[in-house]
Design brief:
This protein is α/β, with parallel strands linked by helices. It is built from ten helices and twelve strands. Strands 4-1-5-12-6 form a five-stranded mixed β-sheet. A five-stranded mixed β-sheet has the order 9-8-10-7-11, sandwiched between helices. It is globular and about 55 Å long.
């Protein structure tokens, strides 16, 4: 979508947020709660993290009450389609495969994937280097697509949560893991249990698997909600709300480049 078009949507919806049907009911948001620092749970069960705060900020911008609904990652899309919730705010990459089932807002952040292994692992993050190795990834994530495509000679080990991936890497049950680079840095490499590990190779980039950013998913044929969310993303970027949330979790702006304005 062209940048000028996006801002036109923002202008159209900006005046409507206070009077439209957006203000008349709750917006049920599917969240994972097991993907720190994007979403996790405190000891008392409170949901916290970047995704959680972004979801609440978007609801506030759209004048709707947020109802956060926890959902295991691999059941996110089926639950959305079954109307368990209205939108997904769970670091879901916008890919062509997913767009065949659901629709997406404009992106709200974009960070690359990277491989993590023991320091001085003695092999490279290539198809040849990882031949015969065990690669841990979260089941149903874009990293599964990339690992299966890029490392055909490796054994791909699937996990329900990213925390389980990191745990088994420490225990030596897998040789490497593949995940979002920011997740790996903030939730593992910067912690005590990740002190013996490091990134292996550079950014892993593949548009067919990883798409072109992380968006908020909605059901097909719900264009008003989709466009309202896209406008709200731009609005919280413009008024500083996004920057304030971003700064609580990350030392740099994770939004990435602006949408293509050509």
């Amino acid at each position: 979508m062209k940048l000028t078009t996006i801002f036109a949507i923002a202008a159209t919806f900006g005046a409507a947020f206070t009077t439209s049907t957006f203000a008349q009911d709750k917006l049920r948001i599917g969240v994972e709660g097991a993907y720190p620092p994007f979403s996790s749970k405190e000891s008392d069960g409170t949901l916290v993290g970047f995704d959680i705060e972004i979801a609440n900020a978007l609801c506030a911008q759209m004048k709707r009450e947020c109802e956060l609904v926890e959902q295991d990652w691999d059941g996110m899309i089926p639950a959305l389609k079954a109307k368990k919730f209205d939108a997904i705010v769970a670091s879901m990459s916008i890919t062509e495969e997913r767009k065949r089932q659901i629709d997406f807002s404009e992106k709200y952040y974009q960070t690359p994937a990277r491989v993590v292994a023991k320091k001085d692992a003695g092999f490279e993050a290539t198809a040849e280097g990882l031949f015969g190795k065990r690669i841990g990834v979260q089941r149903g994530a874009t990293h599964q697509c990339y690992a299966e495509k890029t490392y055909p000679g490796a054994e791909i080990v699937l996990y329900g949560t990213q925390e389980e991936v990191f745990s088994d890497l420490v225990l030596g049950r897998i040789d490497v893991q593949l995940s979002d680079s920011l997740i790996a840095q903030e939730s593992f490499l910067s912690k005590d249990n990740g002190k013996d590990f490091a990134f292996l190779g550079g950014d892993q980039i593949d548009v067919p698997c990883y798409g072109e950013g992380v968006g908020i998913a909605v059901r097909k044929n719900e264009e008003e909600l989709r466009d309202g969310i896209s406008a709200a993303i731009l609005a919280i970027r413009a008024d500083g709300t996004y920057a304030k949330i971003n700064g609580k979790y990350f030392p740099f702006d994770i939004y990435g480049a602006l949408p293509n304005s050509n």
